[in-house]
Design goal:
Belongs to the universal stress protein A family. It holds the Pfam family Usp. This protein is α/β, with parallel strands linked by helices. The chain contains ten helices and ten strands. The chain has a ten-stranded mixed beta sheet, sandwiched between helices. Helix 8 links the parallel strand 7 (about 180-185) and strand 8 (about 230-235). The model has no long low-confidence stretch (mean pLDDT about 85).
Length: about 290
């Protein structure tokens, strides 16, 4: 049995956009959708006396958020199997626990009560940095979110560090029937100046060819398994976080890996993933890769 997609909701506009995106994603992959809302209403309101017939406002609100988001999902795709649940926990812990039995976690980019100028909600950031499954943060322009551009982009790092992200991206492109744009950024070593034995142009060519070779190597096995996916390879000079930000402008989804090191605590996100989660022009998928 395939694991469901899980979407975290809190009633905010951002989470409603995440629900819509999650419905389309579940439909594409033929997966059930689980709508999850986390609430600690009992901690703040306490329980009512046993003789009371009135239900706590916090409990009613939590159930309403989960049920209304599930109804929204069902109306968008009547054939989709949708379930909803209120989890008695803080949002980060609830989603991380739910992610242990899901194909992927989907969140909005900002939650209720977030500071107006905040680029990314604290819940989304923490979940993307700690989850054991892929996390998609739904952000960016309407065209990008609606999948109107026909392209999935993936940032390709070293083959040993990003194979799971590449596999995820290829499957996404296949499910959408669109092209895959595989990008690897490269930079000239600091010591290669004009007084190097190689002239500047030759130095650039050598580094670009090396990046292209690594790109081909990282894609070889996965592309062979999905021959129907149209793959465009591109090696680009520049810092990876800037190169991939530019790639996100023309993508329906951008995928990056995040190395998870055993025994490390706190957020495990590299600069590239962190930058995309805050600034990308399209939804961002962060795929964990075990070291």
């Amino acid at each position: 049995m395939e694991l469901p997609l899980v979407v975290g909701v809190d009633g905010s506009d951002s989470s409603l956009r995440a629900v819509d995106w999650a419905v389309d994603e579940a439909t594409r992959h033929g997966l059930p959708l689980r709508v999850v809302h986390a609430s600690l209403w009992e901690r703040y309101e306490g329980s009512l006396p046993s003789f009371s017939t009135r239900r706590p406002a916090g409990e009613l609100m939590a159930e309403h958020i989960a049920a209304s988001c599930a109804e929204r999902a069902q109306l968008r795709s009547p054939e989709l199997k949708v379930s909803s649940e209120v989890l008695p926990d803080d949002p980060v812990s609830a989603l991380l626990h739910a992610g242990q039995e899901s194909s992927a976690l989907i969140t909005g980019s900002r939650g209720r009560g977030e500071i107006g100028g905040l680029l990314l909600g604290s819940v989304s950031l923490a979940v993307a940095a700690k989850a054991v499954c892929p996390v998609i943060v739904v952000r960016g322009g309407e065209q990008n979110r609606q999948g109107a551009l026909g392209r999935v982009a993936v940032g390709v790092g070293d083959p040993s560090e990003g194979s799971d992200a590449v596999r995820f991206a290829v499957r996404e492109a296949e499910a959408r029937g669109c092209a895959l744009h595989a990008v690897r950024a490269w930079r000239r070593p600091a010591h290669q100046h004009l007084d190097s034995p190689l002239v500047a142009d030759d130095a650039a060519r050598v580094n670009e060819e090396g990046a292209s070779a690594l790109l081909t190597d990282a894609l070889r096995d996965t592309v062979r398994e999905h021959p129907q996916v149209d793959v465009h390879r591109q090696s680009v000079e520049g810092p990876a976080h800037k190169v991939l930000l530019e790639a996100s402008a023309d993508a329906d989804l951008i995928v990056v890996g995040a190395l998870r090191r055993h025994g490390r605590f706190g957020l495990q996100l590299g600069r590239v993933a962190h930058t995309l989660l805050h600034h990308a022009d399209c939804p961002v998928a962060v795929v964990p890769q075990r070291a």
